[in-house]
Batch of 3 targets.
Target 1
Amino acid sequence: MTQQYSIDTLLAQAGNRSDERTGAVSTPIYLSTAYGHHGIGESTGFDYTRTKNPTRSVLEDTVAKLENGDRGFAFASGMAAIQVLMNLFKGPDEWIVSSDVYGGTYRLLDFAYKNNNSVKPIYVNTASLAEIEAAITANTKAIFIETPSNPLMEECDVAEIAKLAKKHNLLMIVDNTFLTPVLSRPLDLGADIVIHSGTKYIAGHNDSLVGLIIAKGQELCDRVAYIQNGAGAVLSPFDSWLTVRGMKTLSLRMKRHQDNAKAIAEFLRQQPQIDSVLYPNKGGMLSFRLKDENWVNTFLKSIKLITFAESLGGTESFITYPATQTHMDIPEAERVARGITNTLLRFSVGLEDVEDIKADLLQAFTQLK
């Protein structure tokens, strides 16, 4: 009987002793693109690195265990992972998608649908089961949600949406980037596929571009594997190694991110310059709105410890301006109607001492007049 370890143990041991020949504790980086055969049909299990690489396999096997999936797949970016999922479908297939969705996902779905006869995105408030069910048509094939959503931090009931998906024979896809398997395991709640921008919390150090898919079910996993191999946008061995190394501290980091975010959310609610704070009381991500759009640029120029940058989930605190960064490709009227106003800022709360983060915010707020 296989020992069932806790997620903390799985993370701490990620990749350890994966090379039986040498007994290396840290998983090696296998840069070879080709692997020799002893004869016809006598493969070592590795043939060509696009199809399978030993370092990438360690990462893929690890994330499958973390999410309780059957197989994991690593890609060169989160968007490459979503592109692979789109290739499971074709027009006139439809996806029901969170209306508050990452701007890059919106851009890819919109472009592909308009130009390549790809899946049609139907945007609804996926926090509402009634709205999801009302949007289902004969062409609907999947429900794609982010929870919490990006950047409005709206939460969806994964278990109830999964029941709805099963009722209508739909695939359910969950972007678990913000919570990671440390805080949420959507497959355990009935989802079919989990995706991550592993660039963010999973790798955790702002030094590797990573996309991950974890799926359940032999047929579905085989289809994803076929497209991964055929399309070829796989993760490099070095980035696979960086991700395995980074995830070893994921549990520790997520606890500190969350503790800091809770404290900063409460702090921001007390500041007179803040109009609203959006935080689901879990994870390290929050958003807030300043009271005056004219303050935004001054505020971003005034922060010193916190970095004004377009990413999240690293050790450092980042603030992003969705209107001109992550969501700039959404037409302004549509973007504002969705709640992504020109006063909204997204905050990836880092691992710094929380009092230092507060002090930086305070000194920036003093510049707003």
Target 2
Amino acid sequence: MEDQGFISRLPARAATLPDAIYATFDGLPITFANLHRNSDSVAVELRRLGVTKGDRVALMLRNSPDSLAVLFAIAKCGAVWVPVNVQLRGDGLKYILEHCDPRVVFADRDLFANILECGADTTAFQLIAEKGDEASLDHLAGRGHSFSEPLPLADDLFALNYTSGTTGRPKGVRVTHRMLRYASEGAMLCSDARDGDVFFVWEPLYHIGGAQLIPIPLVRDVTLSMVQRFSASRFWDQVRDCGATQIHYLGGVLQILLKQPETPRDRDHKVRVAWGGGCPRDIWRAFEQRFGMPLRECYGMTESSSITTFNANGALGSVGTPVPWLSVEILDEKGTRVAPGVHGEIVVHSRQEGAVFAGYFRNEEATAKALRPNGFHTGDLGMIDVDGNLYFLGRLTDSVRVKGENVSAFEVEHVAGGHPMVEDCALIGVKAEVGEQEIKLFIKPKAGTDIDYPVFSDWLAQRLAPFQNPRYLAVVDDFERTPSQRIMKHRLPASVEGSWDRLRSNGR
């Protein structure tokens, strides 16, 4: 891998193949020349806005050609991209905006209200819309400037990816240009990418599942076919229309696709590989047989360049073996490597420079806990079999995986505990009908108060992202606690029988 990571490849591609297609967005082509020209223009405008190397630029944008232009502009000028989930609101959004301290925030116009009302000091940054006026992103991209400054180096910081915490606030993973290049190389290994391939991209770029695809057309003759969002009913028609050869999955995507009515066209496509994370063992073969393609499961975290292992041998239920630049071992609570077949914590080691992150942004305590002398401690439970295949067995720490998103129990409990009728609360993950888990929230009301479930759920919906809002609610008289007064969550019932269900109550 060259020292420049990935960004130097864009001007090179634009010079040699200006009319070649980097990506399509809802069928409209984005050439390398257009992407280079528009991102140059935005990079110059970022300088005029006072953005210098290392300054944070937050993007609260849905996928679009303009969101690609500003992303590459940030990379060119040495600024730091902060992707912000467009579903965030309230305290969760306030925390990220205050913690990353951005100089500029680009956002879709309809999200301005969420930003202005979240409680963050909006005088601390410039807020710019994607479209709508002379100062908006689409106008900045069209001004025709040429950016001539030296490009960042591979180990310069490129992004702060905020991953949901497990017992605390989200943590900003410091991702270098080199790390994103490693992520794309891992994606190509897992997906068996070849020249001429078309990747169907439904993932938002603010999620690492989408971000890891960004460099691929720069280093391989591959095209991205991007759409605005995942649609189960339109999925296979979109895949057929663009001639996709790879599809990516997260969370409950595979289950959702399997629940669609069978048709004679289920195998009428060009897809060679479905790859991703979170496929339940019990539907693995059913999906392969119905849609006629192999599944290649992978495992990873943003902290270790997104993809740590991938399954190329088809071992059922396994997330595979490590990519060449990383190694993996399973350690017990004392830090001792365990024998094959024994459960323990997944610990990752870098075999090449810069493949594991250097630390969390402005969070020395979390950095010290994760990065130890004996490797990067993931907080995940796993097992390696005698053939070296890794099996992911869940989180050791306190978070829930909902529709491809990690939900911090702390974040939800912090918001719910702020309700005037709540004395205390606790969140656990329960089995989902579709996807990995659903959220069940236990509530201890304040003395003399009663919780109106629909009203309380609506109150939460105004303060949490949709994937963070508990599906199930249950009231308890009190919680069992440890001597240090921590709630003993393992004693809370995972059954949803008798719980209030947000999706089924009163037709909601």
Target 3
Amino acid sequence: MVRVRMLEDIDLEKEINVDSASIPIFKSKMQNYYILIENIDVTSANIIKQEMLSRGGDVAIHKYAINHKVDKTNILLIGSKKQYNLLIQKLKTMNYWDIPKVRELIEKTFKNINIRKWEYTLNAGKKMLLGNNSKIMGILNITPDSFHAPSRIKSVDQAIENAKDMIENGAEILDIGAESTRPGSESVELKEEIERVIPVIKALRKEFPNVILSVDTYKSEVAKKAIENGVDIINDISGMQFDKNMVHVVAESKLPIVIMHIKGTPKDMQKNPYYENCISDLLEYFEERIDYARKNGVNQIIIDPGFGFGKRVQDNLNISYNIEEFRVLGYPILMGHSRKSTIGNVLSIADTKDRLEGTLALTSYYALKGIEIIRVHDVKENYRTIKMIEALRGYKKF
């Protein structure tokens, strides 16, 4: 019987029995890419539009670009990889106006979005592979005031017990923090933070020599002592802004750094935060921070858009829904949404203890998008959710 199917994806060999050598050719034509280039001169925009149209793609530009009533415009390029390749070759012959910059940005975008596996070197020569799956980062709060009360740890023994449970239930990374950075929180004195976190790090490193340990701190002295006691990753909510010596400590250690975005400080970040364009602002921030890190000898970078850190509900949802936009940066992504207030606001749930389902919904979406690290309180539930989503994504192997 003749029939028709609308497809999300297709196994060309199985469904049609094509020559395997032709598959890359077909694949290059099957997916459209939407690339937004911001603030280019209107002459360049009109030329690029015509060049893309002539190759079967399209470009959306400002309605007054055609008659030059505006000087600058954003442009949205729409096309397959093959059409972009043809466009890039043509633009290489046009070294005027903003065209060389646009060509450079398109080339960089495709280069970065195709980087989906990373191998990072950790303390004592251990390796961390990112990109094969979504790794769980379990939260260990050595604090008396973290926003989710059940996550508060009061002793080294309790930290070991919680860590053991997390590891047995699927956590590959443990994130240890000794200062609450919930909205409105006050900073903890350096001495107190060290006294809280270092004994726990020492004990965990001894008890679990192979697990990956991360320290959640923006203070360079805490990071330095944590590294000396076996920590593998520095997780800095300020993106190395609050303590200018942090970049040097990380560079010297040669360990990975999580660069997070925050607007303001934990004390004031939720006092009417506002963005003209949240995604664009964050991308600009990360481009600057990545450049700063690399110029100072820091190359093992993980980015965290900072869910809930100086963001409104709509900002957190925007970032989450469009999380793949951050692929243009070329680095693995970490998301930390667990039980946060956006979930409470969407579901009208005040108590953090009742926000597990909302957390799992976001975890499912991040796993579907292949986010490399997902930072959560409830390891078992999130791990099982991720494994099911990954089975869905890779169902062909079953």
